[in-house]
């Protein structure tokens, strides 16, 4: 399936604009409520989700959409999907609320349970990452300069990236097995992008995430030459009966924690 990437990048940028509208408006910014899992939901999540879903329905009416804000589609309904969009309209809501700028817009296309296209937009810095099967991974910086990205397979001194909000002792134990000389904590799906562009070399996540948290990042990482697997080295797949993910490891090369 060939899709015009520029239209998808435009959708991500426009979603970023509505998020920044809330981010910069003190009255709207204070409108935070909590979802059933006690994670925060802001007006920005809702505005971004509405924009992305409406635009994707117009752009590809034949492709169903699974988003964080539309998570209640039953497995019976979605299990036969060949293609679907997997959307996180505002990844890093805690980072948004903490006003550190480390939040993203995530849009991924899944084909037969595998991410084949990914877009991650960082609204505050106006940096865009994207990848598809035809052209590989790309970054557009804040000045609009576009560059091809690839993982770094040659470094002997690794940089690890991990969550600012969800770090664990298990992650420290696992990273001690590898030649990690520096650890960077950063929010949202930006972690995948840093590995994809070769700035970092390993990202290990212990504990649960949801499919929309990882789909775009996995696409960008793997289509830039990297690997993302379960801890036993199995493929990391989507459209599961439960949308909850298990632990995973990302790197420039294939790693397994069997040992």
Q: Summarize this, please?
A:
The chain is of the alpha+beta class. It has two domains: 5-149, Fructose-1,6-Bisphosphatase, Chain A, domain 1 (2-Layer Sandwich), CATH 3.30.540; 158-251, D-Maltodextrin-Binding Protein, domain 2 (3-Layer(aba) Sandwich), CATH 3.40.190. It is built from eight helices and 16 strands.
Lateral strand order in the biggest sheet = 3-4-5-6-7-8-9
Distance between the termini: 39 Å
CATH topology of the largest domain: Fructose-1,6-Bisphosphatase, Chain A, domain 1
Considering DSSP H and I runs of 4 or more, what fraction of the residues is helical?
25-40%
Tally of individual domains:
2
Using the alpha-carbon principal axes, give the shape: globular
Major β-sheet profile: 7 strands, mixed
SSE string, helices as H and strands as E: HHEEHEHEHEEEEEEHEHEEHEEE
Quick one: how many beta strands? 16
Briefly, what CATH class of the largest domain?
Alpha Beta
Rg over CA atoms: 17 Å
**Total number of helical segments?**
8
Q: pLDDT under 50 segments (min length 5)?
A: none
The CATH architecture term of the largest domain is 2-Layer Sandwich
Name of the CATH homologous superfamily of the largest domain: Fructose-1,6-Bisphosphatase, subunit A, domain 1
Return the average pLDDT rounded to an integer.
92
Strand-pairing-aware structural class: alpha+beta
Q: Beta-sheet strand percentage?
A: 25-35%
Which descriptors apply to this entry?
alpha+beta, 7-stranded mixed beta sheet, single chain, 2 domains, D-Maltodextrin-Binding Protein, domain 2, cell membrane, 3-stranded antiparallel beta sheet, 259 residues, magnesium ion binding, Fructose-1,6-Bisphosphatase, Chain A, domain 1, EC 3.1.3.7, magnesium
């Amino acid at each position: 399936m060939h899709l015009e990437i520029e239209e998808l990048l435009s959708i991500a940028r426009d979603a970023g604009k509505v998020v920044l509208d809330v981010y910069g408006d003190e009255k709207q910014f204070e409108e935070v409520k909590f979802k059933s899992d006690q994670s925060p939901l802001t007006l920005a999540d809702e505005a971004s989700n509405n924009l992305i879903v409406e635009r994707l329905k117009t752009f590809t009416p034949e492709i169903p959409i699974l988003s964080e804000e539309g998570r209640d589609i039953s497995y019976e309904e979605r299990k036969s999907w060949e293609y679907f969009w997997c959307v996180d309209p505002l990844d890093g809501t805690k980072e948004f609320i903490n006003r550190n700028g480390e939040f993203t817009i995530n849009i991924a296309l899944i084909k037969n349970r595998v991410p084949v296209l990914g877009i991650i937009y960082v609204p505050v810095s106006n940096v865009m990452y994207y990848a598809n099967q035809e052209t590989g991974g790309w970054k557009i910086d804040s000045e609009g300069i576009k560059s091809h990205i690839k993982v770094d397979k040659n470094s002997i001194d690794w940089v690890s990236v991990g969550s600012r909000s969800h770090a664990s002792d298990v992650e420290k134990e696992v990273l001690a097995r590898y030649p990690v000389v520096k650890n960077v904590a950063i929010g949202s799906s930006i972690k995948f992008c840093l590995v994809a562009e070769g700035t970092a070399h390993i990202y290990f996540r212990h504990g649960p995430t949801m499919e929309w948290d990882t789909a775009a990042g996995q696409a960008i990482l793997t289509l830039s030459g990297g690997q993302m697997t379960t801890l036993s080295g199995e493929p990391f797949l989507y459209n599961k009966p439960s949308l909850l993910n298990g632990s995973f490891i990302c790197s420039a090369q294939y790693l397994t924690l069997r040992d």
